[in-house]
Amino acid sequence: MRRFSIAVAALFLSAQPAFANASATTGDDAASLHAIDFETYAPRAMAVRIAPDAAPKIDGVLDDAAWSRAQPIDKFFQVEPAEGAAPSQETRAFILYDEKNLYIAIHAFDTDPENIRRSQLQRDPALQDDDAVRILIDPFGSFRDSYFFGVNPNGARNDALVENNSKFSDEWNTIWRAKARVVEDGWVAEIAIPFQSISFDQSLEEWNLQIIRTVRRNNEEIRWSNIDQNRNRIDITNPGKLAGVSDVESGAGLEVQTFITGAGSYDWETDQTDFSFDPSGNVFYKLTPSLTGSLTLNTDFSDTSLDARQVNTGRFSLFFPETRDFFLQDASVFEFGGRIFNNGPVNGLPFFSRNIGIVDGQPVDIVAGAKLSGKAGPANIGVISARTGASDALGVDGQFLSSARLSVPVFSESKAGVVFTNGDPRGEVNSTVAGVDFQYKKSNAFGGGTLTADAAYIRSFTGGEGDHLIASDVSYRSQKWNSTLRLRDVGENYAPRLGFSNRTGIRRYNLQGWRTYRPENSFIRRAETGAFSTLITDRDNGERLDHFYGAWANAQNNAGDSIRANIEHAFVNVRAPFSIAGALPVEAGEYRWNRYNLRLAATNARKLGARAGVRWGGIYGGDFFGADTGVSLRPSRYFELGANYNYSKFSLPAGKLGIHIASIDSTIAFSPDMTIKTEVQYDNISEAFTFFSRFSWEPIPEREIFLSFGHTAIIERESFPEDFTSQGTSLALRLGHTFRM
Predict the structure, then answer these.
(1) pTM: predicted TM-score of the whole model, two decimal places
(2) 559 assigned to some structural domain
(3) Is the pLDDT of residue 11 over 60?
(4) How far apart are alpha carbons 212 and 429 in whole angstroms?
(5) Is residue 57 a part of any domain in this protein?
(6) pLDDT tens digits for range 144-176
(7) Domain with 219 in it: what CATH number?
């Protein structure tokens, strides 16, 4: 660990300015740049209509006659490292459309094509580690939510939903095509997005659009619009405009996904073998081009990846994010509370789709589910209702579970809405939740920063008892001064059974502020220093329960390597005894300690990326030490290996406990449409070993072949490797096809 930390620190400190080869800006160019007011700058592009028989072939070669008709987009600006400066490399974009598809081409010129970074080939790659182009489309004029499409020079595709300009849900997948290739003067990407794959407002004359390119060896970010280092790249607040898209077709608006799954499992303890053959399907119908009705039958989740392994070392339950495709489709319309839940504690979330089909961490069948999502006029609408099956093992009957969300835009960048839920996954009580929220945003406030103020009021009615949650988040972001104030009041009996809440009867106050530095002509790209304070009190008598305060500093060099250090003082009032990881008891009482944290990371943009962190100090009247490491190896675009290890040691008056969590992930990519992904996980508390491997192949975007193999076992930590006790083995083959009409 010590040698690794010294090596990474030396690499960080010795890094030379990575932007030394940036092209110089001429006097005329500089004068032109200074004449632009980027606070109000909104470029405009025209999409040119073509006949369907003139559509370009998506092959990464711009030799189709149709592209000569497109109006070139060639005015791009740096955002990193120098806001508003001329890019080091030229970029040209072209946009066409016919009645069924939107076509986008990017010619990313490069004077050094040999050093174009293209380390990944699989679907949904980590685009930040490669050269890449990103397209964000907001076809509703929301200035908050958008569709994301990204491609690297290998043609590896990444698609996602962006919610509230902050939440990036790349678990979402849709049908689209992309090809890319490196050419003698750079690289070229061609993209075709069917209008059936996105929802849109036909009445809009202009869509919001953003085009972004990254040159990874310089860690350079180039944008078409939103030329502001204060806004992250997925922020669509200040977009460009795409005009000309009109009279397009979504077909009959009907999409049918059919699946046939054959599965077998073997129980090593009972020596029983089970086989099943199950059809399943999803039906999507566009009631309007912007409003979609969905139906799922006998829903199949065999392709869902493993949850990241977590061990609970605290007093409150853990949160696991949603990863299932059906619930991620149009997930942005169900977003509630803005930064309150996206960037703050999840505690109090009124609706959490993971509670549909999962009870006590175990899956239950979803017999059928219906969903309505999209827009009706200016309003965002999300309604979902599902019927779950009974489970004798869990002791639950089938349930009807429902949620509805409605929001409308107000002012220029804000929105207000309501949420309702009904149902209890366990069927123990009648449970209903209702809430309202307001999400305010003001750009160019107080000297060019961005001010957000999100507020929510939620009330639950569960088992005849009602209680509330009141929360707010007020934040200011600028290139220098930044701050956040969060307040939360959670009633003792607040119980959103279809949501997520792990601590009630409290008031929580959080304040943090920090200063951002961007030194000129330095190997340091960005640095921060800041302080924070979090106070939690009993809402009945105001008694202090927890209090955390401290400070941090971090820095990133031009290559993307980073270092972070922080110190925290804690006061914790443990009212009821509990056990760390269910194994080490902690008595009730008041505890105080100091904690220190140091983290180093070498960017994954190299063939070998690594990170390491160490944490030490006191805890619950004793001592704590923690360390975590991770490596990412990409020897070629066809193979990737990641390994992570986390160690925590508690030395308390009641005893000692060491917690080990390890995982290995590998990807073999034969092409962007054919991969084998394998996950291996183990922790010494549950002693559970899990192996899960998935082969997926899309011969064409509408067709899928999926094969999975899984194995679970118990490895007793005191006698490994002798006691490797297999529990279950599973094998599943799923064939799927999507029909669009």
Answers:
(1) 0.86
(2) no
(3) no
(4) 50
(5) yes
(6) 889 999 999 999 999 998 887 877 888 788 999
(7) 2.60.40.1190
